[in-house]
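lol so apparently i was supposed to do this last week
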Amino acid sequence: MSDYAFLYDSSLSQYELSDSHPFKPIRLELTRSLLHMLGILDSKHEVEPEPISEAELLKVHDKSYVDMVKAVSRGEKLNEAYGFGLGTGDNPIFSHMHTAIMGVCSATTTAVELVASGQKQRAINLSGGLHHAHKKQASGFCVYNDLAVGIERAVEKYGMRVAYLDIDAHHGDGVQWLFYDCAEVMTISLHESGRYLFPGTGHTYETGKEAGRGMSVNLPLEPFTEGESYLEGFEAIVPEVLRFFKPDLIVLQAGADMHRFDPLADLALDISAMHKSYQRVSELADELCEGRLVATGGGGYDPYRTVPRAWAGLWAALSRQDLAADIPQGWLESWQEQSPVELPLTIPDNLKTWKPIPRRAEIESHNRSVAKRLMNTLTPIWKEL
Ligand SMILES: [Zn+2]
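anyway here it is w/ zinc ion bound
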């Protein structure tokens, strides 16, 4: 028996929005096969998701919305769906949509259940992380919010205080708004500033309301932020916020679209910086909540070259294993032919081949002042609590 669970079921890769859509479930197979060939994942880690009930989904989503998703999944009510964000370019309708995304919600909720109940110390669902889905609105490739459904399980069934940390390049708006007035859930998001990137929110002044006042934290970063500045911002905010909140469980949304190669966002991290951020989350879970950590995937639109290398480090950090630097030859042979780009030979990026980012000092200093402003905004609110 391992202390670490990797949620897996072949149906989880059915979340294919359309052939031409940038959200590519093949990322899951690419990552899983890399982990197997690296020798850090095997059958003792893999756990099948337990299905959740519709009642559990309805704790997060409005019934009218769930009914609409079910109807369009059967090919009905297509004309009315647009008002719910369904049938758009970002959120095309596909058959079995309801069932497929319920599967993702079940996997994230199972991950939470395993950790909250003490059966596992840590668990990961790489098919999860659909952080843009709202109460009754699909958005940004996300239909149901698996993260919120899982967090509700920990809060309601186990009475836990949950820190939700979102390091995807995009603001974790869906999760933030769903828990905006909730004292038991702290949401923290580091992302490319909404002034430049979807969904346009995630400003420092979004700090929560009513019982949730001071429980929403946003660090918007400049486009082209590199690893060093990112990690500086992370250190300036995340440890202090988590130590203030004292979580029983950390839920990490680990979208991999902050990498420089990602085509949909403009942050410029390298793989090693991403791995350091995962390692820090692991350390903070050890410091603050007896190691309890649930992680999901999220964005990541360079599916062959970047996402598997990023998430190999995520699983290694979560399961406390070392990660080799070289990518196994067998993995390259399996995937190079179908990859649209040349696959790298090592897990860390070859930074020597990267051109320097212009305005680096300006970007760093801007990020530093935003982090300072954020703490200056939060500290007085916390003092009143
Ligand atoms: Zn994203």
